[in-house]
Amino acid sequence: MGPSARLPGTAARDRIVAHIDMDCFYAACERLREPALRxxxxxxxxxxxxxTDSGAVATASYEARAFGVESAMALSEALELLPRKVxxxxxxxxxxxxxxxxxxxxxxxxxVAAEARTLLHERAGTVREVSIDEAYLDVTDRTxxxxxxxxxxxxxxxxxxxxxxxxxxxxAPTMSAAKIASDHDKPDGLVVVEPGEVADFLAPLDVEAxxxxxxxxxxxxxxxGIETAGDLAAADPSVLTDRFGERGRQVHRFARGADDRDxxxxxxxxxxxxxxxxxxxxxxxxxxxxxxxxxxxxVAERAKGRxxxxxxxxxxxxxxxxxxxxxxxxxPGPVADGELVAGVAEELFAEFxxxxxxxxxxxxxxxxxxxxxxxxxxxxxxxxxxEHGRNPTDDGQRSLTEYD
Length: 404
What we know:
It is a single chain. The protein has helices at 25-33, 62-65, 75-81, 106-123, 148-163, 175-184, 198-202, 215-223, 229-234, 237-244, 246-255, 285-305, 338-349; strands spanning 17-22, 42-46, 56-60, 100-103, 126-131, 134-138, 167-172, 190-192, 271-282, 308-319, 323-335, 357-369, 394-397. By secondary structure, the chain is α+β, with helices and mostly antiparallel strands. It folds into three domains: 12-23 and 109-255, Alpha-Beta Plaits; 25-106, MutS, DNA mismatch repair protein, domain I (3-Layer(aba) Sandwich); 271-403, DNA polymerase, Y-family, little finger domain (Dna Ligase, domain 1). α4 packs antiparallel against α5, α10 packs across α11 (246-255) and α12 runs antiparallel to α13 (338-349).
């Protein structure tokens, strides 16, 4: 029985659902790459080119939001509210009341998100990835309500320590309540709503806080005299249905704390991976190879546990200050072979051996989900290498977006 499955007669409130949302994720990634941006107003723009005012705001840090900058705002408008810093980060003479603007770097953000996803899948039986920076976790089989707060704090600490960004976490018996809880105390928030407390927690909140109620719907609800989640919970469901259709019934249920949806993954994963950072960058080849093999073994075990075959084996190497390199090799057919994963990872890593390394990652992709006996390395011939010792199926340098 899956972690979100319930025995007949078991109430949905017995489930423990966590919603995690990484705070101002794009801006947090930029700060990860440029530590001097910490505490500064940061705006990340879609379609933005340095020195121009084109594009739109993708993410604004909380410091930038204090100046009125919001997501989806035109960059030209944002620049009027928050002028661009004319000096580089770390200057001895920064411009007062100005911010740092950076263009969207999706490959880098995806690489950071991949680390977070790996961590989440290790800590939850079921994960539903909603977006690059947001996910639901069913942790019913990993903790109980007495320890749910400690579990969530540990999860938050792991995201900060291992990934380098902060996250807000909400824990509740339902998906909709967990989502509201994670939004309730941003940034870096932690809110636990236990069974029996959901309706009281929701009641005083603004109606727009209810999951599924956007600004337009909230405005229409206010014309009906519905200002809070409690008002929505007490409203006549037939009136809501007449006005909003099925969505009216749904938000009415959410406002009352009723939500029987299970946390279900969105399709099959595209890849399986594990990553690990050293406390300090190390050039010790023994430590590097030991860590790489440990990661490879972990990935192979995850694949084995899911009856997954793979055709591509990849590594990620992060060197100071935060330079990310990836290498990958495609095999002639899908396999399930832990020694192969470790061996290929070591070969791909050879060019980095003894260089200072901050973080390592191993990934398998081009997955096949099939029952029955799984092939191993012995069932495939090793393709011939060229005169330079390269495998003709090696993919070489890969875009980080392939770490989805």
